[in-house]
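Internal ticket - ligand job 234, iron/sulfur cluster:
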Amino acid sequence: MMIQDTPIHALTPFTLLDYKDRTACIVWFSGCNMRCAYCHNPDIVLGNGTKSEEDVLEFLERRSGLLDGVVISGGEATCYKGLPAFLEKIKRMGYEVKLDSNGTYPNTIKYLFENHLIDYMALDYKASACAFQKVTRTGRRLWNNFQNTLEYLCANQKGKFEVRTTVHTDLLKEQDINAIISDLEEKNYSGTYYLQAYTHKEDGTLGHMLDQVKVLDTELIQESRKFRIDYRNF
Ligand code: SF4
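stdout (structure tokens):
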């Protein structure tokens, strides 16, 4: 099995925002199996990494006792074959680990949870079944993989993950969000469902998307009796 020498695009040394109630750093893996039109990280998705595992582990040695956790983000970190072994090293150093993921490698995610290599996960529910291809520019296989991950998490990891959707109204309408809410209800999701508005950044996206002319009409979003819905930046 080939393991890349420099799988990591960048390291953010400190954040208070990305891992709830923790001081953390963020490790941005390069490479992704999706091509979301609104993606703010084209360099990460398409480019090669610049840092090795050793670069990150040396940094974590120096921060020992000063940071609580490590956020593993990207790109899509679960594309990296060496991820479980890398996380073993981080866990041995005593850090808590949060994974940000699009959920398309269900076996890897199951392995990471069941071997205590991650403590928490943010799962991107990219789009309803109807809009998944348009948003992610991938096909049915990744949708099925995502659904497997969601089913596994809802059945086995309650309280250890959250679901979130980034909304650009050129790509997702209120009925897509309602379809996602219904799917989460069917699967007995019990965390908070976060909806975050797309915000335009000057440095470009994979699809050259401009800001939304009209944001989501939250009045048209159905309520759930099973979980809380939280809106960010609406
Ligand atoms: S927004 Fe889409 S293309 Fe960009 S890193 Fe996330 S999953 Fe990959």
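Auto-summary: The chain has a mean pLDDT of 95. The chain has one domain: 8-232.
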